[in-house]
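User: Predict the complex.
Assistant: Input components as received:
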Amino acid sequence: MAVRVVGFDGDDTLWHSETRFSMTQAEYRELLARHIPDVDVDARLADAEMKNLSIYGYGVKSFTLSMLETAIDLTNARIPASDLQVILTWGKRMLMEPTELLDQVEQTLKQIAGRYDLLLITKGDLFDQESKLARSGLGDLFIGVEIVSEKNSDSYSGIFGRRGIDPSEFVMVGNSLRSDIVPVVGLGAYAVHIPYSVTWHHEHVPEDQLPRQGWRRIAAIGELPSVLEGLY
Amino acid sequence: MAVRVVGFDGDDTLWHSETRFSMTQAEYRELLARHIPDVDVDARLADAEMKNLSIYGYGVKSFTLSMLETAIDLTNARIPASDLQVILTWGKRMLMEPTELLDQVEQTLKQIAGRYDLLLITKGDLFDQESKLARSGLGDLFIGVEIVSEKNSDSYSGIFGRRGIDPSEFVMVGNSLRSDIVPVVGLGAYAVHIPYSVTWHHEHVPEDQLPRQGWRRIAAIGELPSVLEGLY
């Protein structure tokens, strides 16, 4: 194949995201433990997030709303509003934090940007993602940004169609097997998986449902340039 | 000009949106009046929304978070969590309601869809807007959907570039002077304004800042087909 376009996931591929959710969730667990010490807060919050996914979609605002709902439900509405106010400020803090790039991201993207067209393909909240990209300083390296509500065959096909990309010239790079690898390989394109240390349970794919070929795994984005060259 | 592509705003142009915000806000006002009868709740909520716009962006989730924040702030955190739970359910209700089309929308779009390429260009929350379009039943009439976080010269230029649209062949139809008319006319395209009965104050544009030509106002979308024909 002759690689022409390289797609990159954003959250936990180019910049840290899940660690921020995890850190906030640790504070949340602590806050609720003062009211209800014996409840598995993480499990109940995860339930609420899954239940709310079809109503709220992904992102920090959705996460904040699910934290508030779970806090009220689990305490039978006995939690004081001042604690809920704290949860609201956590959400804002997450939305305003500077974008923290993963190791080797900037130098790797700069190294390959002249050779391939780079496309950012991220899932989540439009406003939040655009804001993160702007704060990342990487915007100029990308020929375009595609923000989709779900990453599946349909959304990737749509992007290929709109941008005149043939799957045989496309490589997707991301940390999620479910969102970045499986649908892309299914369309005949190539994918490179870079695992992130913390991965949301929702993103797991059983080993036997993974494609046998059409993708590979690397440990860090610094390995990407030679992988792309090896694809010729 | 030979019109080839017609862009449509969604909220309050094709389907009702602001009335739902207004209805929820009326319930909110009533709920807060029980705790703080002498406060101008609408003004304080509007302040919070404006202040939060650069953090949250537009949409129902942002509105819900601003309602919660304002309720806690105005009551000095004395509002019971059960009332905040009610506000959370209002947000969910807004996100799940069926999409209610404005009068004449369906027949007008069906009438012109064969003649022009129709593009939905809406501002707001990606997930919410896609979900509304899906529930509207109008999806198949559009050749594409563009959801942007702000409607300004840059975002319209980006759409023109990506889709190979020349401004001279483009007409934008919408209810907001600020978002649908001014930036479009500024780029040399034509715009048709269809006022909605309730318009968010943030969308107002002083008369002397309106373009002198390049747009016109109609009372209802049913007048659109003949306006488009008259543009030749």
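DSSP finds nine helices and six strands in chain B.
Let me know if you want any component modeled separately.
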